[in-house]
Amino acid sequence: MSSDPLPPPTSVTAPKVEKSYACATAAAVCGAKAAIARSNSAARAGSFAISVNGERLAVPPIASLRAGGAGGRDLGLDDGMLPPSSFVTIQRAWKAGDVVDLTIPKTLRLEPTADDRTVAAILWGPLVLAGDLGPRNERSERATREAGPALVAGNRDVNEWVRPSGARPGDFRVVAVARELSSTRDAAGDLPLTPFYRTHGRTYCVYHDVLTEPEFDSAVAARAAEAARAKRLESATVAFIRPGVPADEQTYNYRSDPAERPVTHTGERTGRGGAGSFSFDLPVEANVAESLVVTYHNDLGLPVLANFDVQVDGALLARYAPNRSATEFWEAIYALPPSTLAGKSKITVRFAAATGSRIAPVYGIRIVRAFAS
Which of 40, 68, 103 is the last residue of a domain? Predict the structure, then answer.
């Protein structure tokens, strides 16, 4: 029985079986026309009531009640692949005014992503719990998304390190396992969790790196190595342009066909892409091995499919190849042949889409001296 009082049930005729899985289940349980009255706290307490109005209704076959889809709708799945359901039967002489109170307790669980078991969402029953990272950054509508801390919980049960907190049902706290990837020496801390629907105006994360100690150490080392690589890249840079930034485009003689080309925004970074072609004039150094480094982006880890050429002074340097393993921003390095640079102080780098195709958004273009990548 529910511990919270429920509002008086409203008597209505239950919808047909194919319209409502919940109401059809109520009819199967009661063998009568039924109505469901859900309390205002149903989302957090999992409580609702089934009332009986005394009118006879045929019990639908259990096989007609489909699992999986909200409202019992057909998901287009093979029935043999659906998990089996179970039902509780209450048999008695029902009369008008009878009420069955149901309380469905919610439990904590991890839901790993299909492609990486170390990345998971934390759920409480059907509710996704978001990590609360503080007030939303109002400096820019395109502010860079913040990553939450790693949860170094090893293989421990989620109930050991996620605990209820506060007065509101649904508020939890990750206890003593939250660690930043900046250093292995930082002490583990806490992370507030709240149902996703309460995150308006907050900065939040819903997917977390749930790691063992060795996995965390490896992640910290990988981040440090990437920071060192970025520093080497910066020191080797001869010229760098951010497409879509007016000052950069003026400095490096941006040209586009068609002339009107929208600016792409991803986080706080800008880029150019689309049909046709665009180009920049970039300085180079004489008698030095150099490369062209172009920054692209995979949205949500999905490769951008496009067909375009990267040209230098009208000659083909490379054709775009998507990076299917990269997530978010990634860099393609195109070595510049010595013959391309001989006797020159600048080159024209042009991106040209194939007929009927487009250029993947370009977020950065560098001329760099040779360095160990």
Answer: 103
